[in-house]
Amino acid sequence: MRILLWHVHGSWTTSFVQGSHRYLLPVTEPRGPDGLGRARTWDWPESAVEVPVHELRSTPFDLVILQRPQDAQLVVDWTGLVPGIDVPAIYVEHNTPQQDVPNTRHPAADHPGLLVVHVTDFNDLFWDCGSTPTTVIEHGIVDPGERYTGELAHAAVVVNDPVRRGRVTGTDLLPGFAEHAPLDVFGMRVNALRHHPHYLPDRMHLHEDLPQEQMHTEIARRRVYVHPIRWTSLGLSLLEAMQLGMPVVALATTEAARAVTPGAGVVSPSVTELHEAMRAFIDDKELARETGAAAREAALERYGLKRFLKHWDQVLTEVTS
Length: 321
What we know:
Layout (H helix, E strand, L loop, with lengths): L1 E4 L4 H7 L5 E6 L20 E5 L10 E4 L4 H9 L9 E5 L20 E5 L2 H6 L7 E3 L15 E7 L3 H4 L8 H5 L4 E5 L16 E5 L3 H8 L2 E6 L8 H9 L3 E4 L4 H4 L5 E4 L2 H13 L1 H18 L2 H16 L1
Parallel strand pairs: 1-2, 1-4, 2-3, 4-5, 5-6, 6-7, 8-9, 8-11, 9-10, 11-12, 12-13
Helix pairs in contact: 7-10, 9-10
């Protein structure tokens, strides 16, 4: 099957393009948000191919994956085809609703011919999609391998754009965790924290834009993974940390409470309890290792790539048949 989709969510797309199809990625000049093409920091197979926007009108495809409100109009402008009418279409919703929760209407609500695929049951519950049918395909990630050493008595956190996103990503909570253990912050645009009031230069260490392979290795050297995100579907960095073999402490918000099963870490809405749990893992290397092993087993079972791709193949077949 030839599938047109945008490079919007790098981690999710990395998993999606591991399937048996051909994946067409629009490219604009310069490479802006509507035409990033292939990833630069993830390892994608050759079946994920770049297609210049001006060639899309003459490039056949069997299905389009929409991920943003503007994607449907881009398909019309670039190909002359109307998603859901002239070509089968699926809208993948990666995010939690952002406004008027829990009454937020989805951009694809009451849209004839579309199917909305949510990445978590939490999202399916909270978005109002009206008469548009929905289903849930839970995340599956490429196994980074068991790399955990825990050699550094530090905590690791991955957060992208922490200054702009603020309370959404729990940026205000980082100093509290850093007071209990040195905190290594990884992600995109984390260097902006250097000029932010929540930055503690003696307790927080920033690591911006590392290639995924290097970042996984570095994170796994830390004793424990911290997930301070208040409002997101389900951070894939949390699942990656678990598959690396790390013990995790996470806010009990959105889907995190289902992802972190008993014995795989500590999940709580109490930041104080999370501080205590983090400190316990920092102080007890054996406890950290045992918990991390349980976390890896749980994440592999529920968020393995094979299950993810099989479920997607089922849905793609249904939509195009």
